[in-house]
Amino acid sequence: MTYAKTSAFTEEQQQLARVAKALAHPARVAIIQLLASKTTCISGDIAAELPLSRTTVSQHLQELKALDLIRGEIDGLTVCYCLNTELLRQVHQQFTAFFLEASSTACAPGDACC
Amino acid sequence: MTYAKTSAFTEEQQQLARVAKALAHPARVAIIQLLASKTTCISGDIAAELPLSRTTVSQHLQELKALDLIRGEIDGLTVCYCLNTELLRQVHQQFTAFFLEASSTACAPGDACC
DNA sequence: ACAATATGACGCATATTTACGACATACTTC
DNA sequence: GAAGTATGTCGTAAATATGCGTCATATTGT
C-alpha cells in the first residue's frame, strides 16, 4: 500500500487489504495464536517461542500494533502484548462479509457468463 | 513465503498467511469483488475497470489463479475468469476459525496475565 | 551510582512485490 | 495467409518486506 494507485480503490478494499497484509506472514499469524492461547504475553517470551531473532519478532509485533490488532502495556521492565479482541471481531465480520459475497457469486465455472 | 524460515511454522499458519497475502492488495480484493458481482468475467473487461495497466492486472490475476482462488477458461480469443467458490468457502472457514480463536482469548488488556 | 536485563529504534543486506512497456503467442476474420 | 485482437510472458525499475546485529533507552536490583 501507499505504493499502489491506492486512492483509486475504495476505503473498504484498502482496509481489507491492510489487515490481510498483516496476516500475510506466518510469524504474525503465529504471534496472534500465541497471544490467544498463552496467559503470558510478554514480548521476550513470544520471541523465544518463534524461530526468529528477537529483533525480527519485535518488528512483527510493531506491525500488528500499528494496525491496533494488538496492544502493548509496559509493565516495568517487560512489555505485555494483548490482542485487541474488539477490533479482531470487527475485522472478522469484514472478512466474513467479503467471503460471503465472494462465495455466493453468480459467476461459477460452466455458467452462462463464461 | 519461501522467504521466511517458513518451515518452522505449521502448515496451517503458512496456509493462512498464503491466502492472506493473496488478499493483501486492494487490486486483488477488487478483482474478487468484481468477479462476484459481474456476469461478465473476461480478462480484458476486468482490466478496464481497474486503475492499473492491463499487464499489471493480468499479473494479479495470475497470483490469484496460482492459489486456485480463481480459474480461467479460454473461450476462443478471450479468457473468462471465475471464482472458485468451493475453495473460497473453505478459506472462509479457516479464517473464521482463526478469528474465533483470536477474539475469544483469555488474555485481554487489564487481565491478570498482563 | 552501577551492573544487569528487556525492549525498541536504526542501519544494512537480501528477497519479494508492484507496475508497466515491449514482445510472443494464439485465435478470429477477411 | 494476412491483419487485427486478446492475453500472457519477459525484462526491468522502483518500492517494500524480511531478517538480524548493534546501539540507545528505560527499569530493576545491588
From TrEMBL, chains A, B:
<dbReference type="InterPro" id="IPR011991">
    <property type="entry name" value="ArsR-like_HTH"/>
</dbReference>
<keyword id="KW-0804">Transcription</keyword>
<dbReference type="InterPro" id="IPR036388">
    <property type="entry name" value="WH-like_DNA-bd_sf"/>
</dbReference>
<protein>
    <submittedName>
        <fullName>ArsR family transcriptional regulator</fullName>
    </submittedName>
</protein>
<dbReference type="GO" id="GO:0003677">
    <property type="term" value="F:DNA binding"/>
</dbReference>
<dbReference type="InterPro" id="IPR036390">
    <property type="entry name" value="WH_DNA-bd_sf"/>
</dbReference>
<keyword id="KW-0238">DNA-binding</keyword>
<dbReference type="InterPro" id="IPR001845">
    <property type="entry name" value="HTH_ArsR_DNA-bd_dom"/>
</dbReference>
<dbReference type="InterPro" id="IPR051081">
    <property type="entry name" value="HTH_MetalResp_TranReg"/>
</dbReference>
<dbReference type="GO" id="GO:0003700">
    <property type="term" value="F:DNA-binding transcription factor activity"/>
</dbReference>
<keyword id="KW-0805">Transcription regulation</keyword>
<feature type="domain" description="HTH arsR-type">
    <location>
        <begin position="8"/>
        <end position="103"/>
    </location>
</feature>
<dbReference type="Pfam" id="PF12840">
    <property type="entry name" value="HTH_20"/>
</dbReference>
